[in-house]
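hey can u check if this looks right to u? its 129 residues, i copy pasted from the old doc so theres a chance i mangled smth
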Amino acid sequence: MGTEKILFRLEQPHGPGNIYVAWQKGSGMYLATTGVDSIINIFDRYGEVQERIRLSSLCQGFAWDNNGDLLAMISQGPELILWDSNTNKKNSIDIGLKDALSCLIWAKKTYSCIRQTFKKNYMWCLESR
């Protein structure tokens, strides 16, 4: 076994409290984190912040698509936020639901995701890329 190497250290990037992490699938170039401050930080593999995305409330879920191209984020508001790792651009999409979103899951082979409220499930599809 070789020795372990610390790539970078995150010291309370969201203040005191729990930190939630999602490592980019595929290339593994980005690490997304969130916590009690309602901000998604996207770090590159060297520990440099590439993007800070402020949510309207605490993050309810965030996940990379299977290719690692898109990071989807939901909070307690009626919008779905997408961050594209290829262009470093953020898009906010009002999905027109009155209920708070509670869960987000990407489909395995298409650019589709399931959003769940506390009452119903919804499927949302992106245009073909």
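The first strand starts at residue 20 and ends at 23.
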